[in-house]
Design brief:
The protein has two domains: 8-197, inorganic pyrophosphatase (n-terminal core) (Alpha-Beta Complex), CATH 3.90.1640.10; 203-321, Diaminopimelate Epimerase, Chain A, domain 1, CATH 3.10.310.30. Helix 2 (30-45) packs parallel to helix 4 and helix 5 packs across helix 7 (190-198). It is α/β, with parallel strands linked by helices. The chain is built from twelve helices and eleven strands. Strand 10 (293-294) and strand 11 (298-303) form a beta hairpin.
């Protein structure tokens, strides 16, 4: 693969404004938060004023300590001279803040997801990149600047989570490893980031994982595995997080499994769906059909319906591809 050329409008946008709001999607993962931190550091190096905003919630154990670095409430009355930069998603409705309060701002979008709206005066979308933090590393290179060790660690952290610590990468990804090597050379520690991602889990998360493994059932001729959890599970076990990455690994390793869907009941009328694929099944397309987004092998969405209805719809979309 090769990275897309950085559009000239991105440098134009950076040059045209003094004040910047850097914002990501709600329920942020490490790639979203760390791309915000990495871009904010670059903008400050360029002499800009930056505010970092994230709706949260910061429920993932590996990212909870980042919450103090962000403003979580929206209060920015001045539009003049300010550029709003949306990272790791292409639609301001996914920020969790009222769209009518964000829409008056000039908008820049930097994202590695192909799905999303066509909004934005300045756009840098590269669906070939496995993480948004890799695009931010490219912007540092574009300006001939070298991020410090802390910023490089954030950039590698975001990359590592979005690629399952390199697991989701295909062949011919040399340019990716070149950018990752820069992060390492600049001070990021793969060992420290691996421990950050995989340690510090509560015992309840392991019990929840066991419960979801027990519920997993094959569908579509023993090719698709689906499991689910509900609010009662989380309240009983006292956890908000289920260590999804480890759970996906276990389910995807089952013989015959081609794809996995995990359905999390947030309420009787709202479900969060996580999707992973082992081969040709494009779960990004499935998520897009359900109003979400992602990549060929990893995607997700929120669906306003009950679990049975959501499960049936997900299975219908899997069957279309099979």
């Amino acid at each position: 693969m090769t990275f897309s050329e950085i559009p000239s409008c991105i440098r134009e946008g950076f040059n045209s404004y003094k004040n910047f709001i850097v914002i990501g999607h709600e329920q942020p993962d490490a790639d979203c938060l760390c791309s915000q931190l990495g871009l904010a550091a670059l903008l400050k190096r360029l002499g800009k004023n930056v505010r970092l905003i994230a709706k949260g919630p910061f429920t993932r154990p590996e990212t909870r300590d980042l919450e103090p670095l962000f403003e979580t409430s929206w209060s920015y009355p001045s539009v003049a001279g300010t550029l709003l930069i949306l990272l790791d998603c292409s639609d301001i409705s996914r920020t969790g803040y009222p769209a009518e309060e964000l829409e008056p701002f000039d908008l820049m979008i930097i994202d590695h997801h192909a799905a999303g709206s066509s909004a934005g005066k300045y756009r840098y979308i590269d669906a070939a990149s496995p993480s948004t933090t890799l695009l931010i590393q490219g912007l540092w290179d574009e300006y001939g600047e070298k991020p410090d060790a802390e910023t490089s660690s954030y950039l590698f952290f975001g990359f590592a989570t979005d690629t399952g610590f390199f697991r989701h990468l295909e062949g011919e990804t040399g340019p990716v490893f070149h950018r990752v090597a820069e992060m390492i050379d600049n001070g990021a520690s793969p060992n420290a980031i691996y421990r950050r991602i995989n340690s510090g889990r509560e015992l309840g998360t392991r019990r929840l994982m066991g419960r979801l493994l027990e519920r997993a059932r094959f569908h579509c001729g023993n090719r698709i595995l689906i499991s689910w959890e509900n609010k009662d599970d989380r309240e009983e076990l006292g956890v908000d997080d289920r260590d999804s990455d480890r759970l996906y690994q276990l389910l995807q390793s089952v013989a015959g499994c081609e794809a996995v869907a995990l359905i999390r009941e947030e309420s009787e009328t709202l479900c969060i769906v996580g999707l992973r694929s082992n081969n040709h099944i494009d779960v990004g397309r499935i998520a897009s059909e359900l109003g979400g987004g992602g990549h060929v092998k990893a995607a997700g969405c929120a669906v306003e319906s009950d679990r049975d209805t959501v499960t049936a719809r997900v299975l219908e979309l899997f069957k279309q591809q099979l």
